[in-house]
Amino acid sequence: MADIRRYRQGDRADIREICIRTGRSGEDATGWLDDDDLLPEIYALPYVDLEPETAFVVDVDGRARGYILGVPDTRSFVERLRAQWLPGFAAKHPLTGEDTPTQRFVREGRDPERLLIPELDEYPAHLHIDLLPELQGQGLGRRLVRALLAELRSRGVPGVWLEYGPDNQNAAGFYRRLGFAPLPSGTSGTRVGLHTDARV
Ligand SMILES: CC(C)(COP(=O)(O)OP(=O)(O)OC[C@H]1O[C@@H](n2cnc3c(N)ncnc32)[C@H](O)[C@@H]1OP(=O)(O)O)[C@@H](O)C(=O)NCCC(=O)NCCS
């Protein structure tokens, strides 16, 4: 039985695994980059470490098998990311100047200010969502979005945005179906936003 519940610290290793197993445009990224830790250290672990109260998981027999990781205030998150997360990340993932997939993610991870999009007043929050393959297509993604929207509404946050990879057509279909709309600043149309009072 799959249930939605809040994140707890004991889920951290599962969060890392889910991020890697879905990190290559929705497919398994194991072994893709020079260091499997890179994707979770950009897109998942700083979220659960710095914003554990706005993270929800799909629990199957006590294990997290999917997640939605939310940040209610992207501006303050960027400040904390730079101060508290970046020093360790930068030491572990040096820049080499090469044009490789690994180095493109290293550059992204070292640039928290990329999250300061022009639409932040309307959409102050942002999110990441991933489910292991066996849990996809059962309405759990929708339920995770609902859980996060309710939490954000209760905190008075008006909107949430996210960005997905241009090769991730499943994500595109899912977000469109839930009512996320493209944001003007997203050049390839893969940056979308949703108001927290939306019915999903
Ligand atoms: C994308 C993802 C979060 C969606 O979650 P999900 O649980 O599979 O989606 P749901 O079953 O909740 O679907 C909700 C609605 O979206 C629709 N939908 C889902 N995937 C879709 C797709 N590829 N195209 C069109 N519609 C889609 C569903 O049909 C459903 O609509 P309905 O209730 O009217 O039938 C999940 O599939 C996933 O984790 N994929 C791999 C990782 C990933 O790509 N994450 C996003 C990175 S940005």
CATH superfamily: Gcn5-related N-acetyltransferase (GNAT)
Unreliable stretches covering 5 or more consecutive residues: none
The CATH architecture can be given as 3-Layer(aba) Sandwich
Percent of residues in beta strands?
15-25%
**Structure summary, number of beta strands:** 7
Tally of structural domains:
1
Cα Rg: 16 Å
Count of DSSP H/I helices: 7
CATH topology descriptor: Aminopeptidase
Helix/strand-derived category reads alpha+beta
How is the main sheet built?
7 strands, mixed
User: What's the SSE pattern?
Assistant: EHHHEEHHEHEHEE
Broad CATH class: Alpha Beta
Mean pLDDT: 97
Instruction: Going across the biggest sheet, name each strand in turn.
Output: 1-2-3-4-5-7-6
End-to-end Cα distance, whole Å, is 22 Å
What does the model show?
There is one protein chain. The protein is of the alpha+beta class and 200 residues long. The chain is 38% helix and 20% strand. The chain has a single domain (2-148), classed as Gcn5-related N-acetyltransferase (GNAT) (Aminopeptidase), CATH 3.40.630.30. It has seven helices and seven strands. Strands 1-2-3-4-5-7-6 form a seven-stranded mixed sheet, with helices on both faces. β4, α6 and β5 form a beta-alpha-beta unit. It is globular. The chain starts with a strand and ends in a 5-residue tail after the last strand. Bound molecules: coenzyme A (COA). Residues 22, 26, 129-131, 136-142, 164, 168, 170-171, 173-174, 177 line the site of coenzyme A.
